[in-house]
Amino acid sequence: MGSLPDLTQNKTVRILEDAERHGYGVIASIVYNVEHILGVVKAAENKRSPLIIQVFPWQVKFSDGLLVRTAADAASRASVPIAIHLDHCQDEALVKLAAETLPFDSIMVDMSHHEKAENLAKTKELVSYCHARGIATEAEPGRIEGGEDGVADTADMEGVLTTPEEVEEFIATGVDFLAPAVGNVHGEYGPKGPNLDFARLEKIRKQANGRVRIVLHGTNGFPDDVTRACITKGVSKINVNKLVLEDWNTHMRENASQMLLTQFMEEGVKHVVAMQEHQMDTRMSNVSLHHSFSPSEMAHVIVGSPAILLCAAMLYLALVRTLRYNRSNAVKREYPTRESYRNMTLEEAWKIQSRLAEVEFPTVFSSSVFFALFKVFLAIDQVEYRLTHHQTYGIPSVSRLLAATGQLTNVRTASKRAADTGVILTEVLLHHPSDPRAIDGIARMSFLHERYRRTGKISDEDMLYTLSLFVLEPVRWTKRIDWREVNEVERCAMGTYWCWLGEAMDIPYTALKSHGSGGWANGLHFLDELEEWSLGYEVGNMVSAETNKAVAKHTVDIALFNIPKVLHAVSFDLVSCLLEPRLRTAIMFERPSLLASLALKVIVALRKLLVRHFFLPRPYFLRKRWFSDELNADGRFNFEQYIAHPSYIRPTFYKRWSLNSWLIRMVGGSVPGDQGAEYCPQGYIITELGPDDMRGKGEHDMQATRDRLSRNGRIDCPFDRW
């Protein structure tokens, strides 16, 4: 092959020669990811110490060399000398591949799983192969018991400690670094700790006489004084794994579900830095750097590595893609076929729906329910107009009723009505169907409607239409606006839950096709029929009227109440873009401008792109919270969200003085605690929710509903057995 390359400029060789010459040890740290690389490099720079970054063959195969290239790039930009080393490579093909294609400075040729003669022959061949490519080599004579990650255990091989003969035999292979067995092991040492043969180590150093550098493996559990003693006996490279990463592993276990990913990664790097610096302090590697390194080696400064940034970005995007669809894929795996949908229980359906509302689509779900009020108010209006004018067309009747009573033509009363509706709905939807708070919410909702149903002012069809809006609008809005649409299993869950809720409120389903003819196969079947009927109801009943416009205008005013007035015209145009054409015609809103329509499309498309590909999913502990879980000192619950006025919001320091609160004050809005008791900062109890004339009434009727629902036998019963 001709003359071999000169290894005097090899980075690992130069680092270890300097360490041996000046009597200190260099930490060789195993890394498994980018955070480990950043941590050990930062520690080396902080301590002005040389460093060897090590990987096992597993890391090479797992990342297809990407982690090695990332480490090499970080080393090239560091302000201290750093070498890259492949440890315990037992695969001959991988040794050659690594030497040919990856930026290693040195490779441990570990043929110890072969018999001695074959071990020496293969080691010599591979050492020569590496030297021809400018790469230094390491080998392990004798037997260091135990096993590294991805490395075969060689405990059944002959020999335990390195002998003088083995030292000569391995030096003859041309190896550059020797890792002798002097009682050290890969793994744990047990209660007695390490028992090293220091005399043997001293003899090996003298026998080597500068022909090879001495490396120490199996340092887990080494007291600091033992490591220092090894360095005084001639060890110049100290391999560490658990000693540096154990603290990082603990951080992972304890905080993986407690921190945002960015904070989690940053804190993880800090743990690696701290442990690496400790090793450099206690194991005598944090010495001043010596003149044997060239000025160019000492002049590197980390100014940001494109390779590291690219690797981190790719890993982050892959993580987002995996976690983003994790919940959706999980429910699909649980219910893989339409046939399996019939097995969904009410409890399972509630869990799926509440997860959608609290963590998967919290913004769009809540917004869609608010805008569903447009249609609800129109539906209610139809009732009064139909009764007083004997007409069967137009949903404008309730808007006349509401306009006349002032319930929705005054922003304050409209805001109170919207707040009460929101409180009751969230109490029902976000508590388990057997929870007393959910049952109380259903009982209150049933009581508030009962007097109108009993007198014929609200028909069964009106109730069914209202029910359809609260289940269908979130599905529709999610498809239009959010990063993904509600999948079929989730729609089945919503249909299952709302089918039960309608029955709990004594809403008959006689208007639906399958009622009385075998029923529905599953919740999805029910939801599809409900949507078909609901759309037909709108076509036949939703017509324009001036009272519709007045009520809708004041409803929009609620949504825009805390937005600067200078932005109201633009915001109103955008709201108009969000409404369906039929609804926009019924409430007599002008068609939005082309610019507003285009702006909304761009905003929606950009939001979908960013959330789908760049934002990690919201963890459960950061779920959108709507109400307090426990009673306050007044024996009431507090609400946590508001649009116009802070009804039922407890005036905490944060809610009064946060940045958002200051912005609300600047536009003349109210924050929790303003206006004394007007917005009920003490909180709410279910029996007080609703119109003022119904406050505190209905306990007897509510108790009857509670008694009926407390006997609910469908909680854990599959849909097809209802």
Question: Number of helical runs?
Answer: 30
CATH architectural label of the largest domain? Alpha-Beta Barrel
Radius of gyration in whole Å, from Cα? 36 Å
Distance between the termini: 82 Å
**What do the pLDDT scores average to?**
86
Q: Note the main sheet.
A: 8 strands, parallel, barrel
Structural category: mainly alpha
The name of the CATH topology of the largest domain is TIM Barrel
The proportion of residues forming helix, as a percent range, comes to: 40-55%
CATH superfamily of the largest domain: Aldolase class I
Strand residue content: 5-15%
List the helices and strands and how they pair.
Blueprint: H1 11-22, E1 26-30, H2 34-47, E2 51-55, H3 57-62, H4 66-77, E3 82-89, H5 92-101, E4 106-109, H6 116-131, E5 136-139, H7 164-172, E6 177-178, H8 198-208, E7 213-216, H9 224-232, E8 235-240, H10 242-255, H11 261-282, H12 295-298, H13 306-324, H14 326-334, H15 338-341, H16 346-360, H17 362-389, H18 397-405, H19 411-429, H20 436-454, H21 460-481, H22 488-504, H23 523-541, H24 546-559, H25 568-578, H26 581-586, H27 594-614, H28 653-657, H29 659-666, H30 699-709
Parallel strand pairs: 1-2, 1-8, 2-3, 3-4, 4-5, 5-6, 6-7, 7-8
Helix pairs in contact: 2-4, 2-11, 4-13, 5-6, 7-8, 10-11, 16-17, 16-22, 17-18, 17-21, 17-24, 18-24, 19-20, 20-30, 21-22, 21-23, 22-23, 25-27
InterPro entries: Aldolase_TIM, FBA_II, MPAB
Transmembrane segments: 298-319, 361-380
GO molecular function: aldehyde-lyase activity; oxidoreductase activity; zinc ion binding
